[in-house]
Amino acid sequence: KTAYEIMPSLVGSEMCIRDRKNLKTGDILEVLTTDPQAIKDFQAFCEITNCLFQSSNKKNGIIKISICKSI
Predict the structure, then answer these.
(1) Exposure string (b/e) for 18-46, b if CB count within 10 Å is 16 or more?
(2) Contact assessment for residue 68 and residue 26, using Cβ atoms and an 8 Å cutoff
(3) pLDDT along the chain (71 residues), means of 10
(4) DSSP secondary structure, 5-67, as one string
């Protein structure tokens, strides 16, 4: 199933599913967004894809989310 099928609010996370295929184990993917719901969305994304949600920071209205690709 896709992230969208599991949880419809994860539409933006589908891009991470595609992009993470190019990442190696341990690589960090940083996502920039203005959507405050994205933090919860990416936490859920990490749970279903076995990635590690590392951090989220908000500065000047931009949220930076960092996740680490797991095995």
Answers:
(1) eebeeeeeeeebebebeeeebbebbebbb
(2) yes
(3) 47 57 81 85 85 93 87 70
(4) HH-GGGTTHHHHHHHHTTSPTT-EEEEEES-TTHHHHHHHHHHHHT-EEEEEEEETTEEEEEE
What DSSP element (H or E) covers 68? strand 62-68
Instruction: Judge if pTM exceeds 0.85.
Output: no
The answer to whether 12 and 2 have CB atoms below 8 angstroms apart is no
User: What per-residue confidence (pLDDT) applies to 58?
Assistant: 93
